[in-house]
Amino acid sequence: MERLVHEPSSSSKTLELVGVIRPNLGAQRKVRPLVHDLTRPLPFQTNTISAIYGSHVLEHLYHVDAQRLLAECKRVLKPGGVLWLVVPDLRSMVSDHLKKSGNGSQSNVCAADELNERLGYKSPAPNNGNAVFKFYAIWKDFHSHKWMYDSESLKRFLLVIGFKEAAEKQYRQSDIVGIEEVGEADRVLNGAGVCVEAKKPGLEKP
Q: What are the two backbone dihedrals, phi and then psi, of residue 40, each rounded to the nearest 5 degrees?
């Protein structure tokens, strides 16, 4: 199984040294990491992948880039292949904001500031890493969120791309065998994220 990381193609060791990516944790799972820029076509043949899992990735892409990526996912998936996505739950964030807003809370953080933090569009302060990292972060702006989703918007997005059976799923509820080996609770539970699964249409019967 390949692991796709949202970084441009380059030597992973070099990227680790300058602080762009963390040391590869995938090796502990005996997978071969693949560093790839997700704004470019996926490096896989058409109709060759059984399942794709993406957690907290899509929101870091501009909406048009996310559209291209999902079209690429559809291309490389086998007919009937499964796409399982986790994204921060915009509905949960807005709901929490509305509950806290205007309630006279004595907290040092107002509801609007908390919502801005959770939306993650931009850091409240400039990057303070080394010069190479600063340049790279400004160039790619890979840490900030570009577009946020709830389950309804993500399902509609997937259907427009051409997937079928787009549906919200509970944590570790999936047609992907072994989903529990990659799913992380803190990415989903307690309003942290929402899971949506969809399938590539199968070959039409003659």
A: -105, 160
Q: What is the pLDDT of residues 91-124, one digit of tens each?
A: 988 888 888 877 655 566 788 888 888 888 877 6
Query: Of the given ranges (22-31, 46-55, 110-119, 163-172), which has the lowest mean pLDDT?
Result: 22-31
For 158, residues 6+ apart whose C-beta sits below 8 A from its C-beta are: 70, 83, 166, 196, 198
CB-CB contact of 168 with 195 (8 Å): yes
Helix (H), strand (E) at residue 35: strand 32-36
Domain boundaries, the chain: 38-199
- Asked if residue 67 lies in contact with residue 161, where contact means CB atoms within 8 angstroms, the answer is yes
Q: If you classify domain 38-199 with CATH, what class do you get?
A: alpha beta
